[in-house]
Design brief:
The structure holds three protein chains of three kinds.
Chain A: E1 7-9, H1 10-17, H2 21-30, E2 36-38, E3 41-45, H3 46-53, H4 57-71, H5 86-93, H6 99-102, E4 106-110, H7 114-126, E5 129-133, E6 151-152, H8 164-174, H9 181-200, E7 215-216, E8 226-227, H10 233-251, E9 254-257, E10 260-268, E11 271-279, E12 285-289, E13 292-295, H11 316-323, E14 328-329, E15 334-340, E16 363-367, H12 370-377, E17 391-392, H13 394-398, H14 408-423, E18 432-435, H15 437-450, H16 458-484, E19 493-502, E20 505-506, E21 519-521, H17 539-559, H18 573-591, H19 598-613, H20 619-639, H21 651-675, H22 699-702, E22 704-709, E23 718-723
Parallel strand pairs in A: 4-5, 4-13, 5-9, 13-21
Antiparallel strand pairs in A: 1-3, 2-3, 6-8, 7-8, 10-11, 11-12, 14-20, 14-22, 15-19, 16-17, 16-18, 18-19, 22-23
Helix pairs in contact in A: 1-2, 1-4, 7-10, 7-17, 8-9, 9-17, 15-16, 19-20, 19-21, 20-21
Chain B: E1 3-9, E2 18-24, H1 33-46, E3 69-70, E4 73-74, E5 96-100, E6 109-111, E7 114-115, H2 118-125, H3 148-158, H4 165-169, H5 176-187, H6 190-193, H7 196-210, H8 220-224, H9 232-246
Parallel strand pairs in B: 1-5
Antiparallel strand pairs in B: 1-2, 3-4, 3-5, 6-7
Chain C: H1 2-21, H2 29-40, H3 42-72, H4 87-90, H5 92-120, H6 130-137, H7 141-168, H8 176-204
Helix pairs in contact in C: 1-2, 1-3, 1-7, 1-8, 3-5, 5-7, 7-8
């Protein structure tokens, strides 16, 4: 529905009337149904609907709900009422569990990053018994720790006009209108509280000389709302959540299982009742029962093999619940970050991100002549030897208005386009230059003039300019030099886009519950808040919002019915089956006595994903990706070789389990990208672009969440659509020319 | 590049380990140290052998999971660098490189180069936190201004990544720098001052219980810390500890 | 450890100050005077001396005990361990044991005869014997060399010990560098001071 809920979309009307969308279109064209165009999209007024059906308008609402349910098998449980009051109303009316009963309820949390650690701590604080699992040696290693920039919150400390609504609006728009309004508004609403909470925990945020918290600005927004702790915000926030978790471990309310991997979820009578885990040190398969299972295991960027994710980041927990009934939403929504350090060779194991802020002063270019590019690759020519006229500043050329500061997805695609055309630099040909020479001269001259020195003395100007660049980006330049061994003050940096975050994930309702009752997903593992593209500094916000302030309350709504269940027994046939499934998988993996390594398959999968489901996608490539992944998966099972035994520490075995799941997810990823016949956010389909090569969204047909249902081994998954209804914002297209 | 590697192999915590020699060829100077080990492991798998187990995760120098004592030095020869950020251009073709696990009675070997550092977790659990309810019903974040120098000092202490290089480098396997950093972070912030006494007593008690050695101020920990955590944190820990003992 | 160390460092200053008076060209007059006072004053003899003895004993017992604890903290040793810290800071037990051995010699040389003189043989107090005894001892070149080597190690021991003990009791200077400077000045003065006395008496004879 559109603003104020007065208008219906074609899809909604089709659902209400239980006819196809085609029929509705035909009637609109013939004039039988009157529609108006809002933002280029057909909308039908309620009066129209009520007169068509000869019912009162009030009944139209019920019909819409019925229609939506008919189309989508689950209730998203978004509370009715005004956007701004939904969360408080919901919190005030959902079921609660009394403190005395909480003591008798066990909750399993898988993953202890920002979302998992904060949720474990708060659930324990409330009185539940928590078992927390992570595959690393300590919760403090979770990859949340690597987030650099900061965390958004609508505190409006700077008095620059920020508000919950503005943060909500920026997030919805940044997500290219593919996220759920009510969830995003709630995120904005609780954001301020996160900062209070973290400060109280002793998180050392940056402060100004008055002793108050400092803010910085971040990409794509007009206010300064990002709180930070130098370039290590993720680390400090994670250590804050970790300390809260430790406090509960000390109180005996959280039992910590580190170096444990979740191997499967156990579903009893349709409800999540526990997990099967593998102790990574001694190889023991263990059963853990609980009244609810929370998945907080992060994103699946490592399906690309090379990404900025940690080496161990994996999709296994999310994938296992998907296979037991949880819908997987929007798997093709991936964020590719333009300023990463390029691949240096085939040995590359992971990529490193550098802050987006570099594009404020760096100019991006490749050689204009393909011969020069070849010479550079062969190290016969240095970039500084190429004259100004022979350089192609392609972003400035293509996007004169935004230049080097186009959004992440646009910058990434443009770099790929140049490299594919053969103009890439670096020995692999997969890199472009980010050049600070002009900025050094510009800053140097300004400084020379303002301090009354000779602005024509080029050496002086350069050294003054370098000082200023050093003050702004010193730590990034140092990191770059450490990895690449080139001095970025003297020669242009080489950069290339890299996979960085996945907006897609397990489908959850407003309570963050998946389609398996009793199984919840929080943080990057769920799909909920970022739509098709995430804004900078929003990932930390979402992880902590889910963990500290949303899940601990909404989980009560489910657990209120569990107070009489009693302890969960693990000697049931469901646990037997799940455990034997895990054992069978391990036996199968361990049965090959020779063959290729796990990494071999992971790299191959990554290459397919990057080449065919990467920055830009087309139907033909996606179809071939599906075929190739299927074939690779079969080869994997028959030929993967894992040395050593299953009864002790065996990193290869752990990796094999993760890659096996990536090999299945990859296929769904490609399928989702194939079905979404539009370009939006991180998903760019070559067939759907404007004449100028810009992304072309299709709001008429694709304003929905793709919710994939697992139908069984080797069966095509079923696509369910959760319609997205925007009542508070108007859908607009983006332009950067 | 070609290298001779002398790597500590140990099946599990119960069995004895030994240095085993390996050769690796075709090493690109642009590889990171861990990528060089990846190459070795791929070779080992190809020949049907078990790969060398080592801890690693983020590979960008922040998670603190990677370890290794390289040629006698935790995190290798470069100052202020974690093993994952060490690159092979630092070595010459033909070099012999010793690779051992972080050693300490409190850090038992799990396998090969992987050690159990959960003692650090237990120290933090004994008091490395502020006892604040996580419900969010706290005061506004700006209600208590914190002088910038204090905030900056607390941040510097909080930059510790908990890798354990301090213990590995110390001739006594002392964990004082790690504990000192955590105690200092909180002791410099008003939020942490309330429980300062209990915190330092409990954390030190747990540290001793775990079997770490005593600090004899050799300064190796600071010199090998990849995040440059200062010895001043140990001084501060001592002061806080003595203060806490006196107030008893 | 640190507190007993600081106590002993204060004692060393006093000891050196008295020794240095032996360099005054008054034929040992001042030195004898002070030595006699120290040797027969009941406060020094029956209160300060036992405290000092206890301090010494405590210091080396603790030192050995800590070394035992520290060794236990790494049961499985490194094959190759090369850390960025000074030799002396890592080998305090070694320098400490050398100093302890020296102390035994020193007691044998001066304290034992003194005790014998005063309490066993019960000879008459003679105010002018100390300077003479001192000069006698440094006749022997081997003894002088052993003394000098021990002083060097004592200096090294103190060099790390001073900075370390202040760090351990949580006393701050404005910077680590300043503390290091104080440690350098102190340890070098002590080592050179005692050495000069020994060498002076070896040659002056």
């Amino acid at each position: 529905m559109d603003k104020d809920g007065q208008m219906l979309s074609i899809k909604e009307l089709a659902d209400v009337l239980n006819v196809s969308q085609k029929t509705i279109r035909r009637h609109i064209n013939s004039g039988k149904i009157k529609s108006v165009k809002v933002g280029g999209v057909h909308r039908i007024s309620r009066e129209q609907v009520s007169s068509l059906l000869e019912v009162e308008e009030i009944i139209v609402d019920d019909l819409i709900n019925i229609g939506l349910e008919r189309g989508f098998p689950y209730d998203s449980k978004v509370p009715s009422g005004d956007l701004k009051n939904k969360w408080s109303k919901h919190k005030g009316t959902i079921n609660l569990v009394s403190p005395a009963n909480k003591r008798n309820i066990d909750i399993i949390v898988v993953g202890t990053g920002l979302a998992g650690a904060s949720a474990s701590a708060t659930l324990a604080e409330l009185g539940y018994n928590v078992k927390a699992f992570c595959f690393q040696d300590s919760p403090r290693r979770a990859h949340s720790i690597a987030a650099q920039g900061g965390i958004n919150a609508s505190k409006n400390y700077q008095g620059d006009g920020d508000s919950d609504y503005r943060l909500f609006y920026d997030t919805i728009k940044g997500g290219d209108y593919r996220s759920r309004e009510a969830n995003v508004y709630r995120l904005a609403e609780v954001s301020a509280n996160i900062i209070d909470q973290c400060v109280a925990q002793g998180v050392p945020f940056a402060r100004d000389y008055g002793g108050l918290l400092d803010n910085r600005s971040f990409g794509g927004v007009l206010v300064s709302r990002t709180f930070y702790a130098k370039g290590q915000t993720g680390q400090q926030l994670l250590l804050g959540a970790y300390s809260a978790l430790n406090r509960q471990v000390n109180r005996g309310k959280v039992e910590m299982f580190s170096r444990h991997e979740m191997m499967d979820v156990v579903v009893v009578d349709g409800k999540a009742r526990g997990i099967i885990s593998r102790n990574l040190v001694n190889g023991k398969i263990e059963r853990h029962g609980a009244h609810a299972v929370v998945i907080a295991s992060g994103g699946y960027g490592n399906v690309f093999y090379l990404s900025t994710n940690a080496m161990g980041s994996n999709v296994t927990a999310s994938w296992k619940i998907h296979k037991k009934g949880a819908f997987f939403a929007n798997p093709c929504f991936t964020q590719i970050h333009p300023t990463c350090i390029p691949v240096s060779g085939d040995h590359q194991s992971k990529l490193t991100l550098m802050s987006e802020s570099l594009r404020n002063d760096g100019r991006i270019w490749v050689p204009k002549n393909i011969e020069d590019a070849k010479k550079i690759r062969n190290k016969e020519l240095k970039p500084t030897e190429i004259p100004e006229n022979d350089r192609d500043y392609y972003l400035e050329r293509r996007y004169p208005a935004f230049g080097n500061l186009v959004p992440r997805d646009v910058a990434s695609r443009a770099a790929k386009e140049r490299c594919d055309a053969g103009y890439g630099v670096n020995k692999t040909g997969q890199a472009v230059y980010l050049d600070f020479a002009a900025a050094i001269i510009r800053y140097g001259k300004e400084k020379a003039i303002s301090t009354g020195q000779d602005k024509d003395n080029i050496d002086l100007v350069k050294s003054l300019g370098k000082e200023i660049i050093k003050a702004k980006y010193g730590n990034l330049f140092q990191m770059y030099e450490k990895i690449v061994d080139e001095n970025p003050y003297e020669t242009p940096m080489q950069i290339f886009p890299a996979v960085h975050y996945t907006m897609g994930g397990v489908w959850v309702d407003y309570n963050l519950m998946t389609t398996i009752p009793g199984c919840f997903a929080i943080g990057e593992a769920n799909f909920s808040d970022h739509g098709a593209n995430r804004l900078g500094a929003s990932a930390l916000m979402q992880g902590l919002a889910d963990g500290y302030f949303v899940l601990p309350y909404t989980i009560g709504d489910y657990l209120a019915d569990e107070i009489k269940t009693g302890p969960i027994k693990t000697d049931t046939k469901e646990f037997d089956e799940a455990e034997s499934g895990v054992n069978k998988f391990i036996e199968k993996i361990m049965s090959n006595k020779s063959g290729k390594s796990v990494d071999y398959y992971h790299r191959k999968l990554g290459k397919i994903m990057w080449d065919k489901c990467g920055m830009s996608r087309n139907a033909e490539d996606l179809r071939s990706a599906i075929t190739e992944i299927k074939a690779l998966r079969e080869e994997f099972y028959s030929n993967v070789f894992v040395p050593g035994g299953a009864d002790g520490y065996n990193e290869e075995l752990a990796k094999a389990g993760r890659v096996a799941d990536f090999l299945e997810l990859g296929e769904l990823f490609a399928l989702d990208a194939l079905e979404r016949n539009e370009s939006c956010g991180g998903h760019f389909r070559e067939e759907y672009q404007t004449e100028e090569g810009e992304a072309l969204r299709n709001d008429e047909e694709f304003t929905f969440v793709s919710c994939w249902e697992h139908m069984g081994k080797d069966k095509k998954p079923k696509l369910n659509k959760e319609e997205l209804n925007f009542k508070s914002v108007e859908l607009k297209s983006r332009s950067y020319k | 590049m070609e290298l001779k590697l002398k790597i500590w192999r140990q099946k599990n915590s119960g069995e004895k380990g030994a240095i085993i020699d390996y050769n690796v060829k075709k090493i690109d100077p642009d590889m990171s140290f861990l990528e060089m080990l990846d190459v070795l492991n791929q070779d080992l798998i190809k020949s049907g052998e078990e790969p060398v187990a080592f801890d690693h995760d983020c590979r960008e120098g922040i998670c603190g999971m990677c370890s290794l004592v390289i040629n006698g030095s935790p995190h290798g020869p470069d100052k202020g660098t974690t093993t994952c950020q060490l690159h092979m251009r630092r070595f010459k073709s033909g070099d012999t490189i010793y690779i051992e696990p972080f050693r300490g009675t409190a850090f038992p070997v799990i396998k090969d180069l992987v050690v159990d550092r959960s003692a650090f977790d237990r120290i933090q659990q004994s008091g490395g936190y502020v006892s604040v309810n996580t419900s969010g019903n706290t005061v506004d974040a700006n209600a208590t201004p914190i002088p910038k120098p204090d905030a900056d000092e607390a941040f510097k202490a909080a930059a510790c990544i908990g890798c354990g290089a301090c213990v590995a480098s110390c001739k006594n396997s002392s964990a004082m720098l790690f504990v000192g950093a955590k105690v200092s972070q909180y002791s410099r912030l008003p939020q942490g001052k309330v429980e300062a006494r209990e915190r330092v007593l409990n954390m030190v008690k747990q540290m001793d219980k775990e079997g770490f050695g005593n600090c004899t101020n050799t300064g190796a920990c600071e010199a090998h810390c990849p995040k440059g955590i200062s010895l001043d944190n140990i001084l501060n820990l001592n002061r806080e500890y003595i203060k806490a003992k006196i107030r008893k | 450890m640190a507190l007993s160390g600081i106590f002993l460092m204060v004692f060393l200053v006093q000891h050196l100050a008295i020794n240095l008076t032996s360099l005054i060209p008054d034929n040992g007059y001042t030195f004898n005077k002070i030595s006699h006072f120290m040797g027969y004053n009941p406060v020094v003899q029956f209160i300060l001396q036992p405290i000092l003895m206890l301090g010494v004993c405590f210091h080396f017992t603790m030192g050995i005990f800590l070394e035992y604890q520290n060794r236990r903290a790494r049961k499985s040793k490194y094959v190759f361990h090369k850390t960025r810290s000074s030799w002396i800071s890592k080998n305090m037990i070694l320098s400490g044991l050398v100093v302890l051995a020296f102390l035994a010699l020193h007691f044998y040389d001066f304290w034992v005869p003194e005790m014998d003189y005063k309490y066993v043989s019960k000879l008459i107090p003679a105010e002018d014997r100390y300077y003479h005894e001192l000069q006698e001892k440094f006749h022997n070149s081997t003894r002088t060399v052993i003394y000098c080597i021990s002083f060097v190690l004592l200096g090294l021991h103190l060099n790390h010990g001073l900075a370390s003990s202040f760090q351990s009791v949580g006393v701050t200077t404005s910077s680590q560098k300043k503390l290091k400077l104080i440690a350098n000045i102190y340890s070098i003065s002590i080592a050179i001071g005692f050495t000069v006395v020994a060498v002076f008496h070896y040659f002056s004879h």
